Amino acid sequence: MSKSYPTKIEIREVGPREGFQSFHAVVSTSEKLKLIDALARAGLKEIEVTSFVRPDKVPQLADAEALVNALPAHAEVRYTALYLNQTGFKRAEAAPAIKNRAWLYASPSKTFLKANNNTTPEEALARVAEWCELFNDHGKDVHGLMVSNAFGCAYEGPIATDVVVKLVNTYQAELARNKQTLREVCLADTVGMGNPDSVEHIVTALAPLKIPISLHLHDTRGLGLVNAYAGLRSGVTIFESSVGGIGGCPFTPGASGNIATEDLVYMCHALGIQTGIDLASLAKAAHVAQSIMGCALPGRVYKTFSQSS
Amino acid sequence: MSKSYPTKIEIREVGPREGFQSFHAVVSTSEKLKLIDALARAGLKEIEVTSFVRPDKVPQLADAEALVNALPAHAEVRYTALYLNQTGFKRAEAAPAIKNRAWLYASPSKTFLKANNNTTPEEALARVAEWCELFNDHGKDVHGLMVSNAFGCAYEGPIATDVVVKLVNTYQAELARNKQTLREVCLADTVGMGNPDSVEHIVTALAPLKIPISLHLHDTRGLGLVNAYAGLRSGVTIFESSVGGIGGCPFTPGASGNIATEDLVYMCHALGIQTGIDLASLAKAAHVAQSIMGCALPGRVYKTFSQSS
Q1: CB-CB: which of B2, B223, B304 is closest to A254?
Q2: Which class does domain A10-304 fall in?
Q3: Chain A contact for B280, CB < 8 A?
Q4: Domain boundaries, chain A
Q5: What is the ipTM, given to two decimal places?
Q6: In chain B, is it the N or the C terminus that has fewer CB atoms within a 10 Å radius of its CB?
Q7: pLDDT digits (tens, 9 = 90+) for B70-90
Q8: Is A249 an annotated catalytic residue?
Q9: How far is CA A125 from the centre of its chain?
Q10: What is the pLDDT of residues B143-168, one digit of tens each?
Q11: Beta-carbon separation of B192 and A300 below 8 A
């Protein structure tokens, strides 16, 4: 059984955005800031703090501007914010504390694109030029492509690796026409339909791109951390995860969050892989999240640390 | 990355014993029977239904005799019951429905042995002859050795592979003196301190025994299913797990149950490994367990099946 793990990995924390966006209650800005500060103190170097969406659609994130203008100063931390459309992108750019990279978002699922973004694959692709121009207006080159439902979709079931590879190649070609190129592809297992074999398969299939392939894994079917392990074995060095495994909705059977950042960190350290994160401090951050959300979170290892530790 | 999974695995279900023994409330015998029946109908071929312990010490299992005398008839199912001492073994043998194999129990942790069994490693070893005689009185040869804390211990921290290998060899030698031999070694990660590397390491180290090495994995630190995956890659074909991931205490931070049977089954099926279990029926059993315990269980995949499915 051959094996080679990366020496170190990067973790992008998405808990404050994923967790609070799907939480049944509106969390106060000051509580969100407390969690973000705890995450930064634990050593997270990139934290997605909110999403610039319509306040009437997602009241949980209606404080996006107030939040990003009050972020705790941590020189080494890159704060980012999700955007779903150009209005959201511009709102994020207007916030001095937010240092977004220029991401394009795509999905191999037609049904998801229609339901979620009211668009077709063709329309989405046709908008790439427009996005490139917008990025350019803000002095940015395209960074990466975020592929939602890269392993499967709640509407269409499992998605074949070939379909994802073709999608990535199509975007790469369209970017070339705009004198841009991909510098990262992030595969999001939006509804937890990946397995260790499909992770290895798709990472290997995208290897010819010679750019980092990152993973954003949900733990809907229990395989989140197994898939991260398969990713490590396949050479993946960038992971997105949520403190405490928040995201989805902890109160809704069937909906589920990302892999827990602290469980991922625990696994990496156990395997001798560096993360730059202090596990005890991260467990403390998970306890902060638990106390905000008022219930035990899906993450496992933080529960072995006392709340005050 | 070479890989070869087993074609099929055996799963021993320990949920009714693990889950109810550590549950804060006493569950009625009829509710326990309902869960056991649902598990048998899902295709589980071996179910540990209770433990013969002192009713005053573990009131949750005070109905052991009543339960084993009312077990639903499923010709293909082997019902077993845990015993911690010779009185418990005899009570189990007195029950016609219980078909226990002759297991010896050991632990590489001196502190655990003292705290849990009030014995020393030397005293425990000295009792092997007595156990062999008792097994013999009931027409049984020794089946296997169950090693608690095979990866680590709440008292002593991580346990080195060498220590476990030495323990197994010592028992093997003592059994040889009694004209017995081990036919299985079950490694229990009692407090979830294993990781994929230590699983691979210990399974490989025990390979010269040329007997099945089985795994009983707790998910205390989130690596339960990752460790099961590492086990599959190392050729392990027997796993113990709990429906819904029950065990430990779902209400006590830090205590945690086994890997969830249905998550293990889901993973195996996704990797093309046969289990003989119907996942939808097993998810139904997990919903029965959830309804008995009155809260969402740690298992993930059952929540993607509707309660009535």
Answers
A1: B304
A2: alpha beta
A3: no
A4: 10-304
A5: 0.95
A6: C
A7: 999 999 999 999 998 999 999
A8: yes
A9: 22
A10: 999 999 999 998 889 999 999 999 99
A11: yes
